[in-house]
Amino acid sequence: MKIIHILFLFTFISFTICHASVNDFCVADLKAPNTNSGYPCKPVAKVTSDDFVFHGLVAGSTNNSFKLGVTPASVTNFPALNGLGISAMRVDIEEGGFAPMHTHPGATELIISIQGEVTVGFVTPTGVYSKVLKSGDLFVVPPGLLHYVINSGKGKAMGYVAFSSEKPSVQILDLLLFGNKLPSNLVAKTTYLDLAQVKKLKAKFGGSG
């Protein structure tokens, strides 16, 4: 019984000491190198209230192949997010536009529809999960799954996205397949696409080979 009491006391003290030494926040010092554990903390004496505000969540340019505009608020432009495991993004999609099949390997994505109508969905080896969203609707995409967003209504669609990462990565399927230097015949063979179509798509997305 005494051993159990000692172990409990040791655990409690260790837990208390560990959490007492942790800062309430760690505003990123973006002038320092980024490491596997994130950015180092900006000295607390240099932190101000302005560090905890982001003013730039405005409409992004939709002048691209997808008619898609994104404006991220992640640790690289909102350093107070450092170590908090959260970030945000504004998404604007013109009529007929879409966010192509893509993944965020290390982040859950919460889509919040604000304006217009979009069709969103993700795919798994066993099914497709898709819904039409209108203003006020939310949709969650589990981490690492291929998903898409299509403006399926009239006029411009707009919404916000929250991620469970302060710096979510993104892998866009079209760019991975056709924005690279892989030989076109290899891409055609491994995707069952016509070789001419592969070359056309490589020209569109800046690939070669």
From TrEMBL:
Residues 55-199 form the Cupin type-1 domain. It comes from the Eukaryota. GO terms for molecular function: manganese ion binding. Mn(2+) binds at residues 102, 104, 109, 147. It is found in: Secreted, Extracellular space, Apoplast. The keyword Hydrolase does not apply. Disulfide bonds join 26-41. Oxalate binds at residues 104, 109. Keywords: Apoplast, Disulfide bond, Glycoprotein, Manganese, Metal-binding, Receptor, Secreted, Signal. InterPro entries: Cupin_1, Germin, Germin_Mn-BS, RmlC-like_jellyroll, RmlC_Cupin_sf. Its main location: secreted. Pfam families: Cupin_1. Residues 1-20 form the signal peptide. GO terms for cellular component: apoplast. Belongs to the germin family. This is Germin-like protein. The lineage of its organism: Eukaryota, Viridiplantae, Streptophyta, Embryophyta, Tracheophyta.
